[in-house]
TrEMBL record:
<dbReference type="GO" id="GO:0016020">
    <property type="term" value="C:membrane"/>
</dbReference>
<dbReference type="InterPro" id="IPR016039">
    <property type="entry name" value="Thiolase-like"/>
</dbReference>
<protein>
    <submittedName>
        <fullName>ACP</fullName>
    </submittedName>
</protein>
<dbReference type="GO" id="GO:0016747">
    <property type="term" value="F:acyltransferase activity, transferring groups other than amino-acyl groups"/>
</dbReference>
<dbReference type="GO" id="GO:0006633">
    <property type="term" value="P:fatty acid biosynthetic process"/>
</dbReference>
<dbReference type="Pfam" id="PF08392">
    <property type="entry name" value="FAE1_CUT1_RppA"/>
</dbReference>
<dbReference type="InterPro" id="IPR013601">
    <property type="entry name" value="FAE1_typ3_polyketide_synth"/>
</dbReference>
<dbReference type="GO" id="GO:0044550">
    <property type="term" value="P:secondary metabolite biosynthetic process"/>
</dbReference>
<feature type="domain" description="FAE">
    <location>
        <begin position="46"/>
        <end position="158"/>
    </location>
</feature>
Amino acid sequence: MNQASGIFGIEAASRYLPQQLPIQAWAQANHADAATLATLEKQGMRNFHHAGDESVEDMAGNALQALIDSHGLDREDVDLLVFVHSLSTSTPAAPASLPARLASAFGLGRARCFALSGQNCASLLLSLRVMRSLFHAEPDLKKVLLVSADRCCGESYRTAGGITFHSDGASALLLGRDTPFNRVLALEGHVSGRHHRAYARPEALRREYRTLYGTIAHRLLTRTAQFAGLALGDFRYLVAENLDLNISRRLATSLGQPADWVYSDNVSACGHVQCSDSVIDLVDLWHSGPINPDGDNLLFFMSGANGSQAAMALGRCRAPGSGPSS
C-alpha cells in the first residue's frame, strides 16, 4: 500500500515542560568553560527546562493529563498506550512497567500497553512506523496514545557533545484512524549500526557521523516528500530537532529552500527535549504559529546520536477544532 494513503493521523497533542532556566546560569553553576557557552549561544541555545525533583513518570503523567483535559478524551476509546523514550534511564527496570502504571493511574483499563526505544532522539518518529503497521494489521485499532518523557541522567550530559543542550520534558499524542487533518502521509527512517556507541564511539566515527549527517538527512527528507506525493516546496516548514540552528539551516539550503523554512522558534526557549521535540514544536505551531486554518503540510526530522534518523510528512496540519470540519 502506498504510504501516502494516510491511514492514520494526529487527533490531539500536548507537551509538558518543567521549570525554565537560562543556560548561562547552568554554565556558572556547573563550571562550564566560556568556549562551551559561546558555542551554545552561537547555535541559538539560550534556555532549557530542568525537572528538579520531578521523575520521568511525573512528567509523562502531566503531559497525558494535559492531553486529556484539552481534548476531552473518553478513556474507554483508547485501544493502545505506548511509552516512547530516548534515554535508557527513562524507564524503570523490569518487571516494573511505566506504561502499565500510566494506564492504571489514568483509568485506561481497555488499553494494551508497551514501551519503545532504542533509536535515541529519533525514537518517537520511528515508533510511528510501528503504529502505521499496527493500524494496517489490526482493523479494529482506532485510537492510540503515544507518551514520551525523558530527563537528563546527569548535568555533565546536558551539552550533548557540543551540538545542542538537553532539556527535560514530556509529550503526548493521540493517534486516530482516518483522521481528516494532521494525517501522517509518509514515514522514513535510517539506522547505522556503526554508530551504536553514540558519544562513546571513537573520534574517527564521530567525524564520519558529522560528515555524512547532512547527506543522509537530505536523502531521507527528499524520499519522504516523494512518498507523500509532494514537492519540498509544498511544505510550509521543515520542523527539525532542536539542535544547532546552523546545521538545520544548511540542510534547508541543500534542499533548495530558504533558511527561514526551518521552524526555529523553540530552539532558544526549550533546548533539545530528547525525542519530544517534534511534538512540542507541533503543539506550539498549532497554537501560536502562522499555520493556515485550512491546513498546511509540515516535514519533520529527528536524529539520534547512535546513527538513527527519521522523517515524517504531515498533511493538512492544523490545530484540533480550528477551521472547517472537512
